[in-house]
Design brief:
By secondary structure, the chain is α+β, with helices and mostly antiparallel strands. 31% of the residues lie in helices and 29% in strands. α6 packs across α8, α7 (461-468) crosses α9 (490-513) and α17 packs antiparallel against α18.
């Protein structure tokens, strides 16, 4: 962004923790000042940054203000510290002001006080994206020292000010300066919510990374503004949001409990109910529990809201322990408190326990066994079958115990964890019968013959994978077993399993894309793309979750709404009421291209957020909603007639945009001039290929670019005539030691002579490979 030759942006964030006090008196200042110790002088003064102060004034102000300064951090998708900024206490009961961009969108927030005490934020008391201000709440153990609020309407140009913050993550610094001006910014100046529509305080002070959210105070210590923007060209220029905006937010808060604010890693309360403490999180379909539970022995439960059928029924989950000294698995017949059964691995053994109360005196171990079926340190599927009078338990498909017990039958089912080690769960299911269905003997014989033939003689993996694709699960099982038996050929067999998985995904996506345009399920196709990288992804589970989301959205739509009003209301439902938002801090994270993780985290990039929007509109029978594939950006369009078009930018919380706005977007992201043809509906096949190209680009930028191969294979299965991607695949295949595959792609280019390709160069490359 540029305005009058000055480049500005948000203050970047950093992480550190040491103390620093920054002196700013220059040599010139010192030479010009008189001797401050002259007896005849009136009150002693010193000069700092060219300003004259009574001696000790800044020091006293610093000492007075320091206890009210805090450091604020927020976490990344993986749970690590993503960024650090500044905040300040504004009420003794724990209200803290900062910038909205400091706390992140839907991230866990931690506050460190001046004395080193840390707290987790318990609520967002108020927030305003337009002003880039947030007020967070902590439950402090004692009354806190707060800063007094000044009146920003009374600020004078040239007024002396002092700024406090955490520059570059260095805890607590102070610097003085002056108010340069009070001015409305021009369009090139933007903060979190866009161009401010209110006057900002222009300050002539050095602003560093990490000062975001810090206070600007007068010489009496009263807050005049909040540091928000810095210059990227000159270090001594920045802008602060006036404190009177903050005061209006204090008077009229819009509170959000932290459990509603957080979307990263939070369990859906409509699906899971944690009890007895512990920290239950979810990411990419895996539920993880950390921290000691509140029950005896560290017990903690996470109960599913799924209905439990009458016996007989099965419950199953895959579980992995970080440390085998822990214990974690299935809970069932729970009263929602301390009564339930538990089936779980514990210290390398498998245990079935009946819990009838709060401690070990009311617990009964029904059976405990050691079995080779359990694989320590790996994912293990455990399953319990509950009949009227028996509990039958399985590990990785093998029965390990059968116990007669009918004490409890009614109640909820879910997950349990004991002691401290971290446990991970995925693929939780409840059903009448979850056992693996036997494969007919004739089919097993046929599949075994094909696989054994490949094992002995080799062959064309693509043709074999296509032949096995109609029986994916039994084929995978046989292939894995064969790989274990024949260690020398295990690598080839596992590779064939992967290719079988890719072939299955390709066939399913091609089948979806073969439908008429209005019947193509973009959501399912997008989930299948994510399944390429996560074979355990439960497509049906996410489709069911999306149906529930659509049902909730339906309740917000009035029959009296026009179609355009329904589109606008759908945007409000997604972005304001359900927390979906554009990923700013981690835009190039793979999770933003995986639709399952976009639904889990409610965070994505323009194209994936748009797919969610478009598919919800389809399920709700809202017509004329489609995707618009702009160069460098993706938006949603609503066009009921040829001459009537409304566009919505899902990355900007569903903001309505005009053609002029779209032209600015295109110019800003790609440097191109908007072509009116780009505003036409993008075919769903093209949307899927654009999603694939995003993932291909991410992987090609990695050190191991061979991970791009599944996405290249899928894209070329959809459109075999795309020459650039075919050339890229030949290069990646060569890096993956697939010389034959690389030759195949180069030969295709020679045979087809696609436009814009230097065929002589391709022939030279082919000659070298051969």
């Amino acid at each position: 962004m540029n305005c009058n030759g000055i480049r500005i942006n948000h203050l970047p964030l950093n992480v550190c923790a040491v103390c620093l006090l920054l002196p700013f008196a220059s040599a010139q200042d010192a030479s010009e000042s008189t001797n401050p110790f002259t007896p005849q002088a009136p009150p002693v003064v010193i000069k700092s940054n060219g300003l004259v102060f009574e001696k000790g004034r800044i020091e006293k102000l610093t000492k007075k203000s320091q206890p009210a300064l805090v450091t604020i951090t927020h976490s990344s998708r993986e749970g690590t510290v993503r960024g650090t900024g500044t905040g300040f206490i504004i009420s003794p009961d724990g209200l803290i002001a900062t910038n909205l961009h400091v706390i992140g969108d839907g991230r866990p927030i931690q506050v460190e006080l001046h004395d080193g005490t840390t707290y987790d934020a318990t609520a967002i008391h108020a927030w305003d994206r337009r002003a880039d201000i947030a007020i967070i709440k902590i439950d402090a153990k004692e009354k806190l020292q707060a800063l007094d609020m000044g009146d920003s309407d009374e600020i004078k140009q040239g007024q002396a000010i002092v700024a406090f913050g955490n520059p570059r993550g260095l805890q607590f610094s102070v610097v003085n300066g002056v108010v340069s001006a009070i001015r409305k910014l021009e369009e090139d100046f933007t903060i979190e919510g866009g161009v401010p529509d209110f006057p900002m305080i222009q300050v002539a002070i050095p602003i560093e990374m990490g000062n975001s959210g810090g206070p600007i105070v007068d010489l009496d210590g009263k807050v005049l503004g909040i540091v928000t923007i810095k210059s990227l060209v000159t270090p001594n220029l920045g802008f602060a949001t006036p404190v009177n905006i903050l005061k209006s937010m204090i008077d009229k808060p819009n509170p959000v409990p932290i459990k509603s604010w957080l979307t990263i890693g939070n369990l859906d309360p409509n699906q899971w109910q944690p009890i007895m403490g512990g920290e239950w999180k979810q990411h990419a379909g895996v539920i993880t529990v950390d921290a000691y539970g509140g029950g005896f022995g560290g017990r903690t439960l996470c109960l599913s809201e799924l209905s439990v059928p009458k016996p007989p029924y099965d419950i199953a989950v895959k579980v992995k322990l970080d440390d085998e000294s822990g214990a974690a698995g299935l809970a069932f017949a729970s009263d929602g408190d301390e009564v339930h059964y538990g089936f779980y691995p514990s210290n390398g053994q498998i245990r079935l326990t009946r819990f009838e109360g709060p401690d070990i005196y009311s617990w009964k171990i029904l059976k405990q066994v050691k079995t080779d079926a359990y694989r320590p340190g790996e994912w293990n599927q455990i399953r319990a079958r509950i009949t009227d009078n028996k509990i039958i338990c399985y590990v990785n498909g093998q029965i390990v115990m059968e116990v007669e017990d009918d004490t409890f039958r009614a109640g909820q089912a879910g997950l349990c964890r004991f002691r401290k080690p971290v446990a991970h769960f995925k693929g939780f299911h409840i059903g009448a019968d979850l056992s693996e269905k036997p494969v007919p003997k004739e089919l097993m014989t046929k599949l075994s013959k094909q696989i054994n033939g490949y094992s002995r003689n080799g062959g064309d993996q693509r043709k074999i994978a296509a032949a096995l694709a109609s029986h994916v699960m039994p084929s995978k099982k046989l292939l894995t077993k064969k790989a274990e038996e024949l260690e020398a050929r295990a690598l080839k067999l596992r590779h064939l399993t992967v290719m079988l998985h890719e072939t299955d995904i390709q066939q399913r996506i091609l089948k979806i894309l073969s439908n008429d345009e209005n019947k193509i399920n973009l959501l399912e196709a997008g989930l299948l793309i994510a399944k390429l990288d996560n074979a355990e992804l439960d497509i049906d589970g996410y489709l069911l979750e999306f149906d529930r989301l659509a049902a909730s959205a339906q309740q917000t739509l009035s029959e009296e709404f026009s179609d355009l009003e329904k589109v606008a209301r759908l945007g409000k439902f997604l972005f304001q009421e359900n927390g979906f938002h554009g990923s700013r801090g981690e835009y190039y994270h793979r999770s933003n291209s995986y639709l399952n993780e976009v639904l889990d985290d409610r965070e994505g990039i323009p194209i994936t957020l748009s797919v969610v929007f478009i598919e919800l509109a389809r399920l709700l029978d809202i017509p004329h909603v489609y995707g618009i594939s702009l160069p460098g950006h993706f938006v949603v369009g609503y066009r009921p007639s040829k001459n009537e078009l409304q566009m919505f930018d899902t990355f900007q919380a569903g903001k309505a945009i005009s053609k002029a706005d779209a032209a600015d977007l295109v110019r800003g992201t790609s440097g191109q001039v908007l072509d009116e043809r780009a505003l036409e509906a993008s075919p769903k096949r093209q949307i899927i290929m654009r999603m694939l190209n995003n993932l291909i680009g991410l992987e090609l930028n990695e050190k191991d670019s061979t991970k791009a191969l599944p996405y290249l294979n899928l894209l070329l299965a959809i459109d075999p005539d795309r020459a650039p991607e075919r050339f890229e695949r030949s290069r990646v295949r060569f890096q993956a030691d697939d010389r034959d595959g690389a030759i195949e792609d180069l030969q295709w280019m020679i045979d087809n002579e696609p436009a814009g390709v230097n065929i002589d160069m391709i022939r030279q490359l082919l000659d070298r490979l051969q």
